[in-house]
Design goal:
The protein is of the alpha/beta class. The chain is built from eight helices and eleven strands. The strands form two sheets. Strands 1, 2, 3, 4, 5, 6, 7, 8 and 11 form a nine-stranded mixed sheet that branches.
């Protein structure tokens, strides 16, 4: 009744437990970005169908997976390799998929529990954060956003009570930092584009979580002292202090991540300004030389 889609790149450490958690599905697709480790062989051993596709950006990759997955069922649960659904979530999704055809929402959003230093860090991770991960695959689409992509839903949107369990530090702290260095560059590029558009404050009040989150990101690009605000928001306002040392460490790490985004954005703006200054000279150099007049 439910197909499962997992996007991967060099996930040999995570893909086994992830696929073990969805053995209840008879249609599991691993959409791989040409991993160089044992990800694909492990996935095939677990009974998954493996499709490989060249990575362009996160939004385009998810859209390609949606279109090329050749899913057996109309409902799809989308997972990252470091995520597993808890039993309550699985039961809910199976009940929804077994419901009458054409009734109810076309997509559902769910919460995620993020684990750090061996425990669920509830407050510092801004729980509950909602993710649209269960949908009729023909009723959504992904825009080609570079990072932190979200599906646009054509119809109504529902909610479920179960959780995804997220172990984003399963490959170690160094891998987390390396990944967020890449994310910072992509976020800065998205931020530079958003700053060229008028700020849509009405989007902050939208019932659409995708539009609301995009508007929040557009606003964040324009805030001064962005890393400081991110730390205070997570550690003080959202109660990260209640998570003990893991909460403090996590909030400091995310503040550093915001600092990387700000630094990249500042450098990109500087390079763009220099390019604009050089552009008139380039245009002048591109013009054909004037022919001498008879008086010269």
């Amino acid at each position: 009744m439910i197909s499962v889609l997992v996007l991967t790149l060099n996930e040999e450490k995570n893909i086994g437990p992830c696929l073990d958690s969805v053995q209840w599905s008879d249609d599991v697709v691993v959409f791989d970005s040409f991993s160089r480790d044992k990800t694909c062989s492990i996935a095939r051993d677990k009974g998954a169908r493996v499709i490989q596709h060249r990575f362009e950006n996160y939004g385009a990759q998810r859209e390609a997976a949606r279109l090329q997955g050749n899913f057996k069922h109309p409902w799809v649960l989308v997972l990252d390799a470091d995520e597993t659904p808890d039993p309550e979530l699985v039961a809910e999704l199976q009940a929804l998929a077994a419901g009458p055809e054409g009734q109810g929402p076309d997509a559902y959003r769910m919460r995620r529990k993020d684990y750090f230093q061996g425990r669920w860090v509830r407050h510092a991770t801004l729980y509950p954060s909602w993710f649209v991960r269960f949908f009729r695959w023909k009723e959504v689409h992904y825009q080609p956003r570079s990072v932190h992509e979200y599906p646009s839903v054509h119809g109504p949107l529902g909610e479920v009570k179960g959780h995804l369990i997220h172990n984003s530090f399963s490959k170690g702290l160094g891998e987390w930092w390396a990944k967020h260095v890449r994310y910072a560059d992509l976020e800065a590029r998205e931020g530079l584009e958003s700053m060229e558009r008028p700020l849509n404050l009405r989007g902050l009040l939208s019932p659409d979580p995708v539009l609301r989150r995009r508007s929040l990101k557009d606003l964040a690009c324009r805030l001064p002292l962005r890393p400081v605000f991110r730390f205070l928001y997570g550690y003080v306002w959202h109660g990260g202090i209640l998570d003990g040392r893991p909460g403090l460490d996590y909030c400091l790490m995310l503040a550093c991540y915001e600092f990387m985004i700000v630094g990249q954005l500042r450098e990109m703006k500087r390079e763009k300004a220099l390019l604009k200054l050089a552009l008139p000279d380039s245009r002048e150099a591109a013009l054909p030389a004037k022919r001498p007049t008879s008086e010269s």
